[in-house]
Amino acid sequence: MFSKILIANRGEIALRVIRACREMGIKCVCVFSEADRGAPYLALADESVCIGPPPSGKSYLDISRIMSAAEITDVDAIHPGYGFLSENAHFAEVCQSSGITFIGPSPEAIKLLGNKTSARGVAAKAGVPLLPGVKENVESEEAAIEIANSIGYPVIVKAAAGGGGRGMRVAHNEIALVNGFLQAKSEAGLAFKDDSVYVEKYLEQPRHVEIQLIADKHGNTVYCGERDCSLQRRHQKLVEEAPSPIMTPELRKKMGDAATKLAKEAGYTTAGTCEFLVDSKGNFYFMEVNTRIQVEHPVSELVTRTDLIRAQILAAAGEKLPFKQSDVEVRGHAIECRINAEDPDHDFRPCPGKITRVFVPGGPGVRWDSHIEAGYTIPSTYDSMIGKLLVFAPDRTQAIARMKRALTELRIEGVKTTTPLHLRIMNDRRFIEGSVHTSYIEKELLAK
Ligand code: MV4
Fold it and tell me: Which of 12, 110, 140, 446 is the most core-located residue (most Cβ within 10 A)?
């Protein structure tokens, strides 16, 4: 097992990894930028090292600064958290060649699954359902039109190197397709330095359901149920829950087996997520693979009674998974609300600044994953998520009641937060019914 891990991240996920390390008896080093100097979570690490100025390009995204900190502190492994360098194959390679374990999949698996076109190839080989479309990238407007004519409109043009909704265009007819094709291509070229795009059937009002995977280096791959992340705004998730309100044991097994096969086909190890779009009839289609631990992993931890960060570290260290598929049972219901320092009344503009007062909810079935405290100043340099409020209850109805209670207890003063919007969602008829889709927040709830 590792004796010391460097955490190449900040905020709540850095704290989540510190907590896992402490419980596992592993020492940990936290790197920080000038903007995070003095942040309270740093005191909980065994060591902390300043790696540069606030801009992430000169700190949390600077591979040479992080590797220097790793060498100075003599760590065995690096945990990348989410965002920043977590899905950077080059960083995973640098770690490998420096003799430091990257706590994540191999550089080859990151590359293979990071590109949507090659990931679709892996999915096809593993027999995972794909939306109608073609296997290869689409090179011309004429080729795009030909595909659209054969699969029928609407279609979607997606950047092969994309993710999180960038470089995407929906087309309901030929004119929109030609424009969308050129726009997606130029957006992708600028954003990812790779302008390849592909075309597939556009699914209207789908749900976003993702399968949590964990795999060791001995060929054991296990899925830990699913999360429903349909409630998003501009591709930023707001609320996640497990199980999905539309799930049945049969569908879970089908989706879980499909994701497991895909992971095995890719030689995947450690923690990852296979994302699917699900239509109103319960048909599911491969969307993409996230080769990192995700923000919303705690909802899966709660319903499967696992510690995914611990399992991820064990797997990276070459140990066998501490559980097998038959040990993983989905029980109860978990909901997560992302608490962002944003003003929902002013187009969700970020509200960095000093938090003057905090009251953290507690009581039965409440979990608060956050690095904030009263007196903490939220830097303006990074994302605005300041905490994740989670509840766990025997069923969905009780989980919603518990979340309403916890949101009412939560007090964060000094900055605006998304808490009132979450209360509105918890009281929304369509959310309560479980009948939302991926455009619900933008097209319906916020449009009201
Ligand atoms: C789609 C889709 C409908 N049909 N693909 C958005 C993020 C990117 N990973 C893929 N996305 C979508 N792909 C087909 N063929 C709808 C979306 C989509 C979406 C998906 C999940 C969660 C929120 C979303 C919001 C808008 C569009």
Answer: 110
